[in-house]
Design a protein that fits this description.
- About 30% of the residues lie in helices and about 25% in strands.
- It is α/β, with parallel strands linked by helices and about 240 residues long.
- Strands 6-7-8-3-9-10 form a 6-stranded mixed sheet, with helices on both faces. A 4-stranded antiparallel sheet has the order 2-1-4-5, with helices on one face.
- α2 crosses α3, α2 packs parallel to α4 (about 135-150) and α5 runs parallel beside α6 (about 195-200).
- The structure holds adenosine-5'-diphosphate and magnesium ion (MG).
- Adenosine-5'-diphosphate (ADP) binds near residues 11, 19, 39 and 40.
C-alpha cells in the first residue's frame, strides 16, 4: 500500500501559499488511482514528490510501511508528460540506461528483457532507431517499457494522453489497465475524464494544492453528483 500523509510543499520555506497542502491518501495494492483537477492544482508536483524528484516541505510518503526514499532506485517508475526519452540514445539504449547503471542484472539478461518488453508493446521494428523518428504513441510506449525495466511496484503517469492524438485515448486506457498487478499501485494524473473513468478504481480530485474529493469511480461519475464537492461538480459540468 502507498500511504501519503500530510504531504506539504511550499516553494520557499516560509511562503504563505502551499503548492501542496497537507495531502493525505492511500492507494491499495493492485489499484489504479486517477488524479483529476484544474491546471495548477499541484498534480505534477505530487507525482514529482512520489518519484523523489522534488523534496517535500513536510509530510510522509511510505510504501508497504517503508519510507519511499528507502526503496531501491527505479522502484517508483514515472512516465513523464513529454515522455523525456534521451534523444541521443536508441530505443534499446533508452531502456538499458537505468538498469545498467544500477547493475540490476547481467547485460545479456537486460538485453533480453528490453527486447521482450519492446515486442510486447509492438515496437520490435523500432529497437535500434532514435526517438525523433517515432510517433507520439510509440514514444509513449517506449517510455512505459523503460519504466517497466526496473519492475516498479509504484508506477506514475503524468497526463498520458496530452501529447497524443485524442483517438489514442482508448489505446492508452487499455495499456494502463494491462499494467495493473496485485503488488503494484498505479497513479494517473489526467485531465481526460474518459481515461479516468475507464482505468481508475478511485478518483482524487485536487484544487489549489488540496484534496477536495477522494471517492470511488462509481461515486465520482454518478449522474446526480451526490457526495462530490461543489468544485468537482463544476469541473465535471464544464466538460459536458
Ligand atoms: N518550480 C516551481 N517554482 C514555483 N512555483 C511552481 C514550481 N512548480 C510548480 N509551481 C506552481 O505550483 C502550482 C502547481 O503546479 P503543478 O504541480 O505543475 O500543477 P498541475 O500539474 O496540477 O497543473 C502552480 O501554481 C505552479 O505555478
Ligand atoms: Mg501538471
Amino acid at each position: 500500500m502507498l500511504n501519503v500523509s500530510a504531504l506539504t510543499v511550499r516553494m520557499q520555506q516560509n511562503a504563505e501559499r502551499s503548492i501542496l497542502d497537507h495531502l493525505s491518501f492511500d492507494v491499495n495494492d493492485g489499484e489504479i488511482l486517477a488524479i483529476l483537477g484544474p491546471s495548477g492544482a499541484g498534480k505534477t508536483t505530487l507525482l514529482r514528490c512520489l518519484a523523489l524528484l522534488h523534496k517535500q516541505t513536510a509530510g510522509r510518503i511510505t510504501f508497504n510501511g517503508a519510507p519511499i526514499d528507502t526503496l531501491a532506485p527505479g522502484k517508483v517508475g514515472i512516465v513523464f508528460q513529454g515522455f523525456n526519452l534521451f534523444p541521443h540514445l536508441t530505443v534499446l539504449e533508452n531502456l538499458l540506461l537505468a538498469p545498467k547503471c544500477h547493475k540490476k542484472d547481467t547485460s545479456q539478461a537486460l538485453n533480453d528483457k528490453a527486447k521482450k518488453l519492446l515486442c510486447q508493446f509492438g515496437l520490435e521494428s523500432q529497437i535500434h532507431v532514435y526517438p525523433h523518428s517515432l510517433s507520439g504513441g510509440q514514444k509513449q510506449r517506449v517510455a512505459i517499457a523503460r519504466a517497466l525495466m526496473m519492475d516498479p511496484p509504484v508506477l506514475l503517469f503524468d497526463e498520458p494522453t496530452s501529447a497524443l492524438d485524442p483517438e489514442l485515448i482508448n489505446e492508452v486506457s487499455d495499456i494502463i489497465k494491462a499494467l495493473r498487478q496485485p503488488n503494484r499501485v498505479i497513479l494517473v494524473v489526467t485531465h481526460e475524464v474518459r481515461l479516468a473513468r475507464h482505468v481508475a478504481d478511485q478518483i482524487l480530485f485536487m484544487n489549489n494544492g488540496m484534496i477536495l474529493d477522494n471517492v470511488t469511480n462509481a461515486v465520482f461519475f454518478n449522474e446526480s453528483g451526490d457526495g462530490l464537492s461543489g468544485r468537482a461538480k463544476i469541473f465535471l459540468s464544464n466538460l459536458s
